[in-house]
Amino acid sequence: MAALPKRIIKETERLVADPVPGINATPHEDNLRYFDVTIHGPASSPYEEGIFRLELFLPEDYPMSPPKIRFLTKIYHPNIDKLGRICLDVLKTNWSPALQIRTILLSIQALLGAPNPEDPLANDVAQRWKEDEKAAIETAREWTRTHATV
Amino acid sequence: MSDDDFMSDEDFNDESLEETDSEFEDETYDDDRYLKYDKPQRKSYEVEFRVYSDSQIQKAQAEQIEEVSNILGLPSEQCAVLMRHFKWQKERLIEQYLNSQEEVLGAAGLDTNAARTLKIEKVKGFMCDICCNDENGLETFALRCDHRYCVECYTVYLEQKIKEEGESGRIQCPCEGCSTLVDSKAIKLLAPKSVSDRYQVLLNRTYVDDKDNLRWCPAPNCEYAVDCAIGPKQLTTIVPTVVCSCGHHFCFGCGLNDHQPCPCALVKKWIKKCEDDSETANWISANTKECPKCLATIEKNGGCNHMTCRKCKHEFCWVCMGPWSEHGTSWYNCNRFEEKAGVDARDHQAKSRASLERYLHYYNRYANHEQSAKLDKDLYLKTEKKMTLLQSQSGMSWIEVQYLDSASKVLQQCRQTLKWTYAFAFYLERNNLTHIFEDNQKDLEMAVETLSELFERPVEQLASLKVEMMDKTAYVNNRRIILLDDTAKGLLEDKWNFTVDLN
Question: Residue B425 domain-assigned?
């Protein structure tokens, strides 16, 4: 593999030296473009007290293209599907090379705090979210307890 | 029949002479930018259009931008951004700009701080947020929003946007959430020539895409655009076929190949139906029968003729379709063809098959002409060869054998028309008008087949057939005109009753 770009080195250093509260990203020793990520569910959301594991990969042309991110922990959320893929504008069309791993992970944390059933990825979840929000939130809480607590 | 033809021929000419309202428009467009002028007299199925070349489109844009630039007193690259933002509606732009300058500039992604000129600079102590490079003497660039990045990152960013994503008029500053647009001056400054050329091409396209009265010629590698005033709402009453300077005939409404006389809405429905149904319908028709009781479609994949429907448990005979109970002991050997129950069952089945057969009737004829159209290319090559051969055999000149070429062209055009008459007919409700249409269709088809047959004769005979072929060619062309004129007028006057809604 080609030498790691300065940008990735700097970002990694900063992630370690000055971590974001509730978010942890550590690169693999054998592949510095591959990160293990954990995100704490935001307070007063159904994901509160859950710790969600994600994987993050920086493609060859990062930061011109966005990082590839996926939830590894099962989660009940209208914008996250069964495979853990995330529907988030900044990961797709609204990506900007000035965005960073840190900002993207913060956006994902914010998405947990504010689900958007109007722009769903998991249709069944979004449907339920719209029809019976209370029950949907309860399921999300239940899933958090079963899958996202150690 | 031929008397009748004569009559309608004259009728038609009279009527087309009356149609003079198009000339008024012609004069207002007296401009050397246009490549092609309409024939002064339009037939009822023809529409008015112009063909523009790439450079004419660029010139037209530049002129409009220049004009606005003079009025608003802004640099032309900013005016270009504004014009694109307003989809080239000059008056609206000027009006709104004069009302609230700042708002308009902001909404279009321009910064009001226009005083500073954009240039590549070296800034002390700068670190690029994209590559994290902080070497001394790093060349940097920022738009008016002052989000500064190194030139290398900027260039890669623009290349990605232009070459990979095909963007042009809406490329924003790389900073997240910043909506300042990258204008053509910045592109020229930063991007290599191949990228800025591509940018120009893409930008040119947005002009055509933004304007409802312009459309690119869909032929491969053709760079002309066609200007035609027919809007989407008129498509139920007219089929706007236009001819590009590259020779491609296409519909201005939907961009598909010429599909006169069939309106766009029917074409869309028909193509979808054909994609969905044709093969399936053919297979069903060839391989299955329906249960006489519940009409479930059944494929017999082996075994005896004593069928028991899986769905309704009805027992019947596969051969005569009558109930099995009447078959007594003559199993596997149905000889009860005349029995009433069996006849009824077959009647019933015949009815349910009728609609399928109706569709297949039209589809097969449509597909047949489509197949012929696919052979067009061969036909053309064959024509050329025949023309050369004929010259050497009969001592005729190149000009004298041109009748073969015109015959082949007319043949191709008529097959295209015929093809779509079948889609048109499929959706047509039967009434007296349908008879006229079908007669026209039949006449055209017969004429086409006769000409086609003449065309296929051995080369030795062709020289002596010259007059006959020229006559036939003219006749076939006339039949086509009559058919198209009849259908186009019907559409315009809303005379046709279709089995589906056109809107």
Answer: yes
- Enumerate domains of chain A plus CATH numbers: 6-147 (3.10.110.10)
Residue B62 placed within a domain: no
pTM of the predicted structure, to 2 decimals: 0.62
> Confidence band (pLDDT; 50, 70, 90) for B332?
very low
Tally of domains within chain B: 1
A66-122 pLDDT tens trace: 999 999 999 999 888 889 999 888 888 788 898 999 999 999 999 999 988 877 788
Planar angle of CA B90, B94, B95, nearest 5 degrees: 115
Nearest CA in chain A to B131: A7
Closest CA to A92 of A60, A125, A115, A69: A69
- Quick one: closest CA in A to B159, which residue? A64
Q: What is the pLDDT of residues B219-242, one digit of tens each?
A: 988 889 999 988 888 888 888 999
* E strand or H helix at B396: none
Tell me which chain B residues have a C-beta less than 8 angstroms from the C-beta of A9.
Answer: 132
Domain CATH code at residue B414 = 1.20.120.1750
CA distance to partner chain B, nearest, from residue A85 (Å):
22
Interface check B132 vs A, CB under 8 A = yes
- Checking ipTM against 0.85, whether it exceeds it is no
pLDDT per position as a tens digit, A98-110: 899 999 999 999 9
List the domain range (segments joined by +) for residue B434.
Answer: 264-492
Query: Chain A within 8 Å of B154 (Cβ-Cβ)?
Result: no
Q: Chain A residue closest to B152 (CA)?
A: A64
Q: Which residues pair with B242 in a beta bridge?
A: B250
Q: CB distance A97–B147 less than 8 Å?
A: no
The two tokens of residue B454 are 């003449």
Q: How far is B203 from chain A (nearest CA, A)?
A: 20
Other Cβ atoms closer than 10 A to B480: 24
Q: Give the pLDDT band (50/70/90) at residue B9.
A: very low
Interface contact A98-B176, CB threshold 8 A? yes
3 state SS for B93-123: HHHHHHHCHHHHHHHCCCCCCCCCCCCCEEC
- Tell me, yes or no, whether B215 lies in a domain: no
What pLDDT, on a 0 to 100 scale, did the predictor assign at position A74?
A: 92
Decide if A50 is catalytic.
Answer: no
Would you call B151 an interface residue with chain A, using a CB distance cutoff of 8 Å? no
Q: Please identify which of the residues B246, B294, B304, B312 carries the catalytic annotation.
A: B304
